[in-house]
């Protein structure tokens, strides 16, 4: 049977081969074959990107041109598809802890969160122990560890615990909102959705907890006393970077009226102008030598993106460097560099408005407080501070978009400027080094009490190692690099908060 089928097949092939093929069909066949080969070659020649987000970024830049550094950071961290926090590529990926990319202070020691809780209790006492209307808020809560330690601590102070109306968690990542809810409320706790956000109930009490993906949806109320914490939040906000260049007279911009400068209006003196640093794909074949990569990182793949200077003024370069006298003072010096974070100013303005009131949100009696803990210099403008972190190592921020955490130093003086400009009803204290803050809050004494409750000597050593890491004043130690900044109701500087050289004034 099989031989019969083979013979029939061969016969059919012979018959088919004898039939003349029309010329048009031959041409169509050849054209189709040529098109297929061209597509195959294109697929082979098409650049291979490290992540789907990298390709999406490159495609967008090819259409629009180089993008501001802030746009690149925002996409890398919060893009819907492939963003580091909001669109994780690997299922179940955890950015935090020993198995993640970085570890934060609350994960290092529970004492850190407990002392933050004590700080808010002290502020509550100093502001007359209000019996109701207190709200707790955390922006960028990570896995929820810090808020869990704060709530666990505050429940030991019954009067304050009963004064809290609700807790707000401002979190853009759906995955992290779930993790926070499971920790703070329990995995089986019910969740309901409203226009404000997602609601559940704290596992420690009947305290309502509300999650929002934007601080704008958290209600403003003059009758509330908000206590706000932002820990390692501002360092993840997108930054713009600028450099001063000397512009020859023949390249000077148009006049403010929009008309070109006349030949007689040009002088022989070059002008100083801010130019923005923008991101574009690195050309294929680029090497570490081309990019000037430090030798310590030349074992990594060549970054797919690079930072270059815009050939002309962008709209951001026209107004952001002019937003502060600190920036304007540098304009006369060619090659001066600055980093500006507009989002940070927006958040600080919001905090200040909630505490001290503003024109848009009047508040007769300022109340509440905000505590910011992050890293950066206390009194200088950040420059060249963008970094990438992956698996607890510093890597290029322009490689593996979406798989690398991006952060930059916080400009603490810019935070102070934004808060005091937004509200006349607030004042700022700090920044002070984290070691100074935690030691004044009694970290050594609290850690010693915790160690005495533990019988295991190895556990005692772990407790000691953890708290000492938080106050390490070495060149890159957490106690020195991290800073604490507080926003309080304006009181003419008569009262310093605890941790900043003050005491509780009950």
Principal-axis shape: globular
Q: Percent of residues in beta strands?
A: 15-25%
- Average pLDDT, to the nearest integer? 86
Low-pLDDT windows of residues: 1-44, 255-266
What is the SS-derived class? Answer: alpha+beta
Number of helices: 18
Rg (C-alpha, Å): 29 Å
**What percentage of residues falls in helices of 4 or more residues?**
25-40%
Strand count: 17
End-to-end gap: 103 Å
Strand order in space, largest sheet: 4-5-6-3-2-7-12-17-16
Largest sheet geometry: 9 strands, mixed
Can you characterise this structure?
With 506 residues, the protein is α+β, with helices and mostly antiparallel strands. The chain contains 18 helices and 17 strands. The strands form three sheets. Strands 4-5-6-3-2-7-12-17-16 form a nine-stranded mixed beta sheet, with helices on both faces. Strands 1, 8, 9, 10 and 11 form a five-stranded antiparallel beta sheet that branches. It has a three-stranded antiparallel beta sheet with strand order 14-13-15. The longest helix is centred in the first third of the chain and has 23 residues, at 23-45. It is globular, with a radius of gyration of 29 Å.
């Amino acid at each position: 049977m099989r031989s019969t089928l083979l013979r029939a097949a061969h016969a059919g092939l012979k018959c088919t081969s004898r039939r003349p093929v029309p010329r048009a069909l031959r041409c169509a066949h050849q054209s189709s074959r040529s098109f297929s080969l061209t597509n195959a070659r294109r697929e082979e020649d098409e650049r291979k990107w490290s992540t789907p987000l990298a390709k999406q970024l490159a495609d967008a830049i090819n259409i629009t041109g180089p993008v501001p550094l802030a746009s690149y950071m925002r996409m890398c961290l919060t893009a819907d598809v492939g963003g580091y926090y909001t669109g994780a590529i690997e299922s179940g990926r955890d950015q935090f802890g020993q198995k993640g990319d970085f570890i934060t202070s609350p994960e290092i020691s529970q004492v850190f969160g407990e002392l933050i809780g004590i700080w808010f209790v002290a502020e509550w006492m100093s502001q007359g122990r209000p019996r109701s209307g207190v709200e707790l808020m955390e922006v960028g809560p990570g896995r929820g560890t810090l808020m869990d330690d704060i709530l666990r601590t505050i429940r030991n102070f019954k009067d304050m615990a009963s004064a809290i109306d609700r807790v707000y968690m401002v979190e853009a990542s759906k995955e992290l909102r779930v993790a926070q809810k499971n920790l703070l409320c329990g995995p089986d706790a019910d969740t309901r959705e409203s226009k404000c956000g997602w609601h559940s109930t704290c596992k420690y009490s009947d305290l309502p907890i509300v999650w929002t993906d934007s601080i704008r949806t958290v209600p403003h109320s003059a009758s509330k006393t908000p206590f706000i914490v932002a820990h390692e939040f501002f360092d993840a906000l997108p930054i713009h970077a600028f450099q001063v260049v000397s512009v020859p007279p023949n390249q000077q911009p148009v006049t403010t009226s929009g008309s070109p400068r006349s030949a007689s209006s040009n002088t022989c003196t070059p002008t100083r102008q801010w130019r923005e640093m923008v991101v574009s794909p690195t050309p294929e074949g680029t090497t570490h030598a081309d990019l000037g990569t430090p030798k310590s990182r030349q074992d990594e793949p060549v970054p797919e993106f690079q930072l270059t200077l815009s050939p002309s003024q962008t709209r951001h370069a026209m107004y952001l460097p002019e937003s502060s006298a600190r920036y304007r003072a540098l304009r006369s010096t060619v090659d001066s560099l600055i980093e500006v974070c507009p989002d940070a100013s927006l958040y600080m303005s919001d905090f200040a408005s909630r505490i001290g009131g503003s024109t848009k949100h009047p508040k007769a009696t300022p109340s509440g407080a905000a505590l910011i803990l992050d890293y950066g210099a206390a009194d200088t403008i950040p420059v060249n501070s963008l970094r990438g972190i992956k698996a607890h190592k510093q890597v290029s921020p322009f490689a593996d978009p979406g798989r690398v955490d991006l952060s930059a130093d916080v400009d603490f003086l810019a935070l102070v400027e934004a808060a005091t400009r937004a509200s006349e009803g607030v004042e700022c204290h700090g920044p002070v080094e984290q070691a100074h803050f935690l030691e004044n809050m009694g970290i050594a004494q609290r850690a010693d009490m915790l160690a005495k409750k533990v019988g295991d000597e190895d556990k005692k050593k772990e407790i000691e190692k953890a708290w000492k890491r938080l106050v390490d004043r070495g060149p890159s130690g957490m106690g020195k690099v991290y800073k604490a900044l507080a926003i309080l109701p304006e009181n003419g500087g008569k009262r310093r908060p605890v941790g900043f050289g003050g005491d509780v004034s009950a």
